[in-house]
Amino acid sequence: MKRIAIVGASFAGAEVANKLARRLRWELARGDVEIRVFDKDNDFLVQAMYPLIVFNSLSEEHARWRKSELLDPRIKFYHGPKGELVSIDLRNRELGFADGSKYNYDYLVIATGAEFAPQEVPGLMKDYHTFFTLDGALELREILSRFSRGTIVELFVDLPIKCPIVPLKFGLLLDSYLKDRNVRGNVNIKLLYPIDYLHAQPEVNRLGKIMCEQRNIEYIFRFMVSEVNAEEKVVISDSGEKIKYDLLITIPPHRGAKVFRDSGLGDPLGFLPGDKSTLRYRKGKELYEEVYIIGDATALPVTKAASVAHYQADVIAENLVSDILGTGPRKIYRGEDICPMLTDLYTHEGRGRAWLPWWNYTVNEMPFITTRFGWWFLRAFYMTLPAVVRGGL
Q1: Which residues of the chain have pLDDT under 50?
Q2: Residue span of the structural domain in which 183 resides
Q3: CATH no. for residue 29?
Q4: Which residues contact 58 (CB under 8 A, 6 or more apart)?
Q5: 36, 287, 316, 322: which is deepest, by most CB within 10 A?
Q6: Strands (E), 225-350
Q7: What is the CB neighbour count within 10 angstroms for residue 91?
């Protein structure tokens, strides 16, 4: 029997598992193949929806699912202590879990995602508001519904983050939201970036600067935060610059899973290195051809987003099938990358505007504008994500 272990059952891991279950259905039925998926919990949350939940453009109910409901019934799913990875031995192909159990695999897919570390910024936890969790998005929805005067500062702490277009996107949607409430004239919006651009894609960066300047949204580059003084409501940079705020919204530092930070398998932040074309785990000269990395868990030069994991899932699933059956050509991941850019909400003033920039390792996005069609397309895109996870798209 060939044993496939997938660690992580959010978007990336669940989609790979479902694609494999469909492609290897006869092998599973005969007992020639086993697919086990491990995760520390059973909650599947569509994180891409969180900014729209903040602004009442989508309901939180659309973002809540159960992983066990989305996984093919032919897959063996373990969650809780029996699914929480606490140790990994690549040489002996052994996984260890919080309940003390072990599992030996023939093939491994690591899809453990990213974790947040706001506690690493001194003082931040005393005034921490974020839309990077569902609870945080719901809290911000309530706070913003009452906010009518003052300065809102969006603090982008450091790279890498999930969906690097999101600091810009959230700032533009915040402007649209406040205009709809007729309070925009009383509110200043400031975006603090640790880098010297709004987005690494030149066309996204160019359009973002134009739109921010048209809407009187201030952006400050190379702002490396050293601390937050919650009592004085001040964000302080490592150069001593101070930015006052009335409401602070933070994009927290991202880290790889603790097991990879502790084991040394990841980079200094815990993200996993690998071959950017084959998606196999590689650290220096150490290559494991039976171990694949995907999604937010990776240190690859691509965006951390479900849309990217979707492209990667096809490559990994097809290559695992090829390995197991000994048939078919191997696929290569070419760095396909998309990052939804929403700039205007559907409100009394406008009818929503958005676009879906696309690029890869060698081709940049072409010049574009956001459109009304793009708004409805992206709403449909978000709503179909569970179907994508199931492997139907």
Answers
A1: none
A2: 123-250
A3: 3.50.50.60
A4: 49, 52, 379, 382
A5: 316
A6: 225-229, 234-237, 242-244, 247-251, 254-255, 280-283, 286-293, 337-338, 341-346
A7: 7
